[in-house]
What does this fold into?
Amino acid sequence: MVDNTLSPHGGKLTERVTPLQADDQRVRELKTIPVRSQIASECVGISYGFFSPLEGFMLKADVDAVVEDMRLASGYVWSIPIVFDLSLEEITRLSLREGDTLLLTHQDQPLATLDVEEIYAYDKEHLARQVYGTGDENHPGVRRTYTYKDRFLGGKVTLINPPHVNPPYEKFWYTPRELRERLAERGWTKVVAFQTRNVPHAGHEWLMKGAWFAANADAILVNAVIGEKRTGDYIDEAIILAQDMLRAAGYFKENVYMASILQWDMRYAGPREAVFHAIVRKNLGCTHHMFGRDHAGVGSYYDPYAAHRIFDELPDIGIKPVVTLEWWYCPACEGIAYEGLCGHADRKQELSGTFMRRTLEIGVRPPPLTFRPEVFDLVKECADKYGFGSPFVTESYLKNRNPVMTVPPLGPAG
Amino acid sequence: MVDNTLSPHGGKLTERVTPLQADDQRVRELKTIPVRSQIASECVGISYGFFSPLEGFMLKADVDAVVEDMRLASGYVWSIPIVFDLSLEEITRLSLREGDTLLLTHQDQPLATLDVEEIYAYDKEHLARQVYGTGDENHPGVRRTYTYKDRFLGGKVTLINPPHVNPPYEKFWYTPRELRERLAERGWTKVVAFQTRNVPHAGHEWLMKGAWFAANADAILVNAVIGEKRTGDYIDEAIILAQDMLRAAGYFKENVYMASILQWDMRYAGPREAVFHAIVRKNLGCTHHMFGRDHAGVGSYYDPYAAHRIFDELPDIGIKPVVTLEWWYCPACEGIAYEGLCGHADRKQELSGTFMRRTLEIGVRPPPLTFRPEVFDLVKECADKYGFGSPFVTESYLKNRNPVMTVPPLGPAG
It folds into this structure.
């Protein structure tokens, strides 16, 4: 065990951003690989320190330690492998070898460099079983793992061309350094993080309120995961704008609530993903992280409270979990009630995502204690403005949406 | 400073109960003084350890330390003098001197003995100014102090004839030892106390719920102060039964809530009384005590949050204060909202005691988010059953009410 209590994770915020200019000779000489959006977003995550203490894609020793012991080789807690995969074919084509520096491009522009320290094969099924607790390829995280190419490249990453974050996300995008500065400016020393990939209903709102009390927090940081979408998910624009609407419409006071985004492709790894979320939010400056029922789960792969119990084994993670039961609508209490307090469980009305989706689909304004009216109206507006008519992800949205980030051409010649 | 962290206060629960029998010679030989209900109830409080580490009425050194430094002479935190007052006339009549043992009677029955260690005079105005922050005799605590007789008698108290607690209070009456046993049986290790002398409205209910979260408590102990009443107060029967109704009607689950009583004549000493309440609830086995706005205050003698700040000076008190702002009804949130979170302060509807009283007076069923319907109905029922038609204390109630406790004749001859 090592000291995880320092903040950020590992004690030092990783910052590996060195903007290059268009005429920089180094760019032209490098072997070049275009990367998909998952890898591009992880390059950004690594370089700004969202994933501190990582400085690049993992070497085999780290993946081994993460897979077997949920720690890095250095001993710090870590739960999800962050790897760069490449086919043998590509490796051969580029005559790639350890010691090379690769130029990673995205959207046809230079993005980052990768100092290749190690090229290695890995047993993907073993990785999947350890990280996801299953080898079932119906699990989206497992499926993602199985589609990884034959070899992993480990080594440090440097962002050479910081992408622009586009509207409406740009107001919610902070690097860990920026966010830590904002929290300090506001005088917030105890901040409890809320993970979301949903438009908030009243149950989410009270989950946050209850956790704020339980953490005796100054404020709540909503950190919405923006990344790879599946058909039927809420569109990203609706998620982040609706979360912010809870503040704008006064369901939270200005001085206790802040909405922000995290670029990350959900792995749906349940308890292991909960640990990952905790570490990232620790890097963002949060002292606490709330975890409701079935955090980051999918299907019925995980016990709904596995993500609560996993923290019992990680007393040294350095961010405090705030674990909560269900909030529901209680007709006897005439309001949102907490499973741990309300004696009318037999009459509870679940605030289920499914019910919320139905109200949106049929377009009938739901009762204010399910969706807040301002949230409901905003989501309808987002459907028109960003969703090609739907608040949910469709094929058309996937094809035509405005990208979250744009990699610009390299800066003007120096 | 001494170690206040042990539980009960001072490290050891005082227990000075030695039932005597009717033919016990000792009783007949003692000088006898009938005592008023304040003193009788304090004899009970001392003897069962509600006021641990006190073992009797205070000696001058303790009163001095309490008055000047809010500590006992031994160094333990203590805020309110617990004194036995007697006129010089009575002292002369009985030829009372230090070293005597007095028999205290109540309701014409032997109740307790007092080993007179010290007979002393005290500057009552100085005491009042220090304890109540004012010498104004309109303050009920100050007025009580001024009516104390000329001399104080300090010394140990022994309960020789435990009173019976009458219905409907008897189900809510636990000695500190009994209560600690009950908490342990239920597996409650973190219990947050709620002080009350009111019928609960929805704001009180949520004050308790919020504090339960903030303390990460297993349960809430409602500890209703039953004692001297003023005209217009809620009748005691309505207070304790209505608090228990929150559990019975499911606004709190069975396994998180327990109602109990404390026999104590309120001093309305604001911050000093908050400290006293904290110590007594520590003796009852509570780990936390919630304090809302204007705790134990009266009129405008105290800053509404003075009772929050006083604990900053008492880090060694050994029970954790949970301080809370206001809960109100918010029409925008459509429910009970917390001052620290709700952004609609301009639209708040105060859940004032005055409004609650009015609804009871006119008998119109209030909205469920003010008074819970079961609570409202119960209070009306109590008015008929115990209040001579009123839920509020009247002259008729004061004269004819059933006493909370009855001192029986001494046990049968051994």
Remarks:
- Chain B has a mean pLDDT of 95.
- The first strand of chain B starts at residue 31 and ends at 34.
- The CA atoms of residues 293 and 304 of chain B lie 5 Å apart.
